[in-house]
């Protein structure tokens, strides 16, 4: 019968897939982790100390020379026009 080699190759394929999945799980397990409370505190600290020119209601108006989104070219023309 020819079904025997096919079954063996299917089992080898399953074994290889399981081995690869096991390796990915080991890599995930080795990834450094921090507690949610530490991550949220870090995010809050970053948001409080990093000025965002897109939120003027929190940080106040931004001077044109400090605004990274203001047009840099002369004449007040930007790179594109929205109609």
From TrEMBL:
Cell compartments where the protein resides: Membrane
Keywords of this entry: Lipoprotein, Membrane, Methylation, Palmitate, Prenylation, Transducer
SMART domains: G_gamma
Keyword Lipoprotein belongs to the record: yes
Pfam families: G-gamma (PF00631)
Start and end residues of each G protein gamma domain: 6-82
Annotated GO MF terms: G-protein beta-subunit binding
Superkingdom assignment: Eukaryota
UniProt cross-references to InterPro entries, sorted A to Z: G-protein_gamma-like_dom, GGL_sf, Ste18_fungal
Membrane-topology annotation of the record: Peripheral membrane protein
GO CC annotation, single: heterotrimeric G-protein complex
Record GO biological process: G protein-coupled receptor signaling pathway; pheromone-dependent signal transduction involved in conjugation with cellular fusion
Assembly information from the UniProt record: G proteins are composed of 3 units, alpha, beta and gamma.
Family: Belongs to the G protein gamma family.
Protein's recorded name: Guanine nucleotide-binding protein subunit gamma
UniProt lineage: Eukaryota, Fungi, Dikarya, Basidiomycota, Agaricomycotina
């Amino acid at each position: 019968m020819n079904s025997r080699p096919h079954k063996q190759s299917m089992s080898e394929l399953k074994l290889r897939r399981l081995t690869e999945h096991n390796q990915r799980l080991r890599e995930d397990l080795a990834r450094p982790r921090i507690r949610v409370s530490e991550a949220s505190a870090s995010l809050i600290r970053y948001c409080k100390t990093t000025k965002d020119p897109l939120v003027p209601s929190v940080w106040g108006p931004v001077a044109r020379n400090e605004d990274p989104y203001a047009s840099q070219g002369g004449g007040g023309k930007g790179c594109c026009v929205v109609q």
